[in-house]
Amino acid sequence: xxxxxxxxxxxxxxxxxxxxxxxxxxxxxxxxxxxxxxxxxxxxxxxxxxxxxxxxxxxxxxxxxxxxxxxxxxxxxxxxxxxxxxxxxxxxxxxxxxxxxxxxxxxxxxxxxxxxxxxxxxxxxxxxxxxxxxxxxxxxxxxxxxxxxxxxxxxxxxxxxxxxxxxxxxxxxxxxxxxxxxxxxxxxxxxxxxxxxxxxxxxxxxxxxxxxxxxxxxxxxxxxxxxxxxxxxxxxxxxxxxxxxxxxxxxxxxxxxxxxxxxxxxxxxxxxxxxxxxxxxxxxxxxxxxxxxxxxxxxxxxxxxxxxxxxxxxxxxxxx
Length: 320
Fold this sequence. Notes:
By secondary structure, the protein is α/β, with parallel strands linked by helices. The protein has helices at residues 3-6, 56-67, 101-113, 131-136, 139-146, 176-179, 223-230, 276-285, 295-302; strands spanning 11-12, 32-33, 48-52, 79-84, 118-121, 158-162, 171-175, 186-190, 192-196, 200-202, 238-247, 260-261, 269-273, 315-319. The strands form three sheets. Strands 3, 4, 5, 8, 9, 10, 11, 12, 13 and 14 form a ten-stranded mixed β-sheet that branches. The chain has a two-stranded antiparallel ribbon with strand order 1-2. Strands 6-7 form a two-stranded antiparallel ribbon. Mean pLDDT is 90; it is low at 1-30.
């Protein structure tokens, strides 16, 4: 994202470009501010942290500690949105298709300890009935136990928004609770690490599909550029990649333990950074690839969303 775009604030009103094309409700006379790189400073360190270990929760705590601590991002009274993968029912952590519940729980606890007034955890699941996936992933019970609200996505709250300088997408439907300033002060993206049949891999940048509406299948044509375009509107403040187990094949659905690695050679890690491109570029190395090999990572770097050289702004590894 260019410096000009990254500092720009858009007022959303009745003149939304393309609004109504998909039967979405308009905001009418209400005016809301889109949280594209809002003014609140993010004081976390700019580098990339990788933590190795056997306890996902302890590893997540260590990763955020090494970035400076959650209080460098979350202020007293903030509303925090945490976006995990929890789209697949009957896929516990051992299948690596949903985010590890303990990674999510650790983030919820740290946000509340930093003074957040509310932490919301949600995902727009593939199924129109999200309950089995929310429960079956283990994320909902773990997040609620940690103190979060875990609501289902309200499909009436998708709003059609223009995408500034979009290469393929000129507008799309985004979820209000993730893109409006008065709905979300901090957005934390916490994806699983997995193979994907269309985009080759699915990590942080791809995970924002769970924050958009319309017919998401249409995004698969030109998916790499589309992912970069969505990030022209969605502002992720922190990405925490669950690579405790990784799905090597048959993603994103998975379902066979033989397709999962939990080896220290390419798994047993939690990766964190304020730079979503750096996180995914490192994640590609877990598959023997480089960031440049994956279209959406390359396109997101070219769009200015982050550094494809994940070591450029600092790189540290730790074990717990």
